[in-house]
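Notes from hallway chat w/ T.B., transcribed later so I don't forget. T.B. wanted the structure written out for a chain they're using in a teaching module, and asked if we could keep both sequence and structure tokens in one place. Agreed to drop them here.
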Amino acid sequence: MIVRALQAVPADDATLVERVRRGDESAFSALYERHARYLAGVLYRIMGHDAETDDILQETFVDAALQIGQLREPSQIRSWLVTIVVRRAHRALGARRRRKWFGLRVAEISPRCADPKLRQRIDELYEQLDRLSPDMRIPWVLHRIEDQGLADVAAACGVSLATAKRRIAAADERLNRRMHATG
């Protein structure tokens, strides 16, 4: 009974860190439960409403698990975790900025479609392409839109020529069926 009562008393951060360093997974879970909500709030305020926040939070704790031996002041784990989360958020924001810049540059050089009816048809095609598996979509786009030869498509996709042909034919069949059903 006394042992159970002692286990129920939450350990301080420094004690939990030492237990984690000795391989105690329950201590790591306790640290996660103690600090994850706070770190999620910090991330939310840095990143805004963003799907990446969950990933960054998980990656932060993975980093912490791998680097916990380097923590000099175990009682300062929250500050240490904030440092990790801020570094990860900084990288994610940089990547977001690069993706946005790249997207703008691609939009500048992408072909434009002035005819609204044709634009609608193109949008319908891409809606149907989104329903194909990548294994069918990629070879189809390379061959039918990019006009690559079958051998080049097979090489780019890392499949045999026969497999590339089968996938393109299957995509043709599905797209034709779906486009005629909606058109």
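Follow-up for T.B.: The two ends are 73 Å apart (CA to CA). Might be a good example for the class.
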